Amino acid sequence: MVFSSYLFILVFLPITFLGYRLLTYFRYDELSKVWLVAASLVFYWQGSGTFLFIFLASVVFNYLIGIAIIRLGASPRWEKKWLLAIGLAGNIALLGYYKYTNFVIENVNFIAGTSFDVMNIVLPLGISFFTFQLIAFLVDCYKGDTEEYSFVNYLVFITFFPQLIVGPIVHHKEVVPQFEDEKRPLFNKFNVMLGMFLFSIGAAKKVLLADPLTAYGEAFFSDVGSYDVLASWLASFSYTLSYYFDLSGYADMAIGLGLFFNILLPQNFKSPYKARNFRDYWQRWHITLSRFLSNYIFRGVYKKGKGSFNFYFAVMVTFFVSGFWHGAGWNFVLWGIINGAFVCMAHYMRRSGRELPFIIAWVLTFAGVVGTRILFVASDSQQAFEVMRKMFDFSQFAEFDFSGIAYEMYVFAMYNSVTILTLIIAMGIAFFGKSSNEMKEDFKPSLKYAIIAAVLLGLSLTQMSGVSDFLYFQF
């Protein structure tokens, strides 16, 4: 089920919210949490079908392992290590089977010359996201950084539908206490109005900006050879902006929905395309993913006081994991390595006290973002390099004078006017507009915000008959 759909907005959300409010009104607090869990499982089942049962088995398995680790307390560490190892192995095996089995088979066939058939495996919704949350829970149980949550509070933390499929990747410490808060069941008019405002912004980002830009990008990358240099630039920029508005739009809707239930989900984007280097960029882009990788990968490799090499090595390992987590393909691994190298460069510049003028630094950073996005969305590395080559192949203009080139560009612009206008609007918002978090901080219930929310949601509703899935929906 997609947030930006009639089924979700007109059926699922009203029923879920009204049922929740009725239960909290009559002070059935625990039952209201059970209602949220049940609604979240229906939400997941609607998009994943029978995988729901495997998802539930994974959730229960991790709870039992986590509670067993907690109850060992100061018991010999080898017992806790074995339990942690079993838990991590279970999560990694589940993710590995669904996401990487065919990748392994294809590479074995390539290296060994075998001809094993790839398997017909459908990637379950949100497996990459909820697996990370479960791993974080187990590791914190082992470290003694969590307590023995009730099964209901644990379930509602993992399954809470606003963040279940595409994040933000929430941490138990920031969500479970909110479900335990005695003020949570109370009706909060401010939170509901703010939630509606953020949801409308997210819907507009997704439906009015991301979807049309994604459509152009997908058409180009499905048949690169049929397009020219101008289309290559337009498609590359379209995909770069569409990914931001698709993911940040989902995050805005998720945060808005959380507020309906008095749950504040963490910020996930902070105007990343305003960044002056890749270190800054990754502190603004998919913030909860960066936080997870920093806490559970980087800190596991980096040892303070071991010198610069250890630091840069830890950065590269972290981004290698990030690349492989994003997709089962060598282009994703290369994407992660390049991003890691860019982050290392930014850290080196900072440590050595060097700084480029902002406009130069920003242009170089955004160029790197576009280049890595091409690598990310391409079917493989070969196609990515073909797109980059095509972007600088101006041979089609070799026989034209200045007026001829201008005419060709004019014709292209007229033919693709809607996409270009959408891209210009998207770039203006991304480069110069306030982030959703800044708008959230400025929010005050008023007629102005009500009109903005109504207009944005109204325009979005008119376009939802052809809404596509979120880019990270089956991820």
Helix-strand topology string: HHHHHHHHHHHHHHHHHHHH
Into which percentage range does the β-strand content fall? under 5%
Q: Count helical runs.
A: 20
Number of strands: 0
The whole-number mean of residue pLDDT values reads 91
| Helix percentage | over 70%
* Low-pLDDT residue intervals, each spanning 5 or more residues: none
- Structural shape: globular
Q: How large is the radius of gyration?
A: 24 Å
Give the helix/strand class. Answer: mainly alpha
- In whole angstroms, the N-to-C terminal distance is 15 Å
Report the biggest beta sheet as strand number plus sense, adding barrel if it closes.
none
Structure at a glance:
This protein has helices spanning 6-25, 29-48, 51-72, 77-112, 127-143, 151-159, 161-164, 172-180, 189-221, 229-260, 278-282, 287-301, 308-326, 330-351, 358-377, 381-391, 402-415, 417-432, 436-442, 447-461. It has 475 residues and is mostly helical. Helix 6 crosses helix 8 (172-180).
Task: Please characterize this protein's 3D structure.
The protein is built from 20 helices and no strands. Helix 12 packs across helix 13. The longest helix is centred in the first third of the chain and has 36 residues.
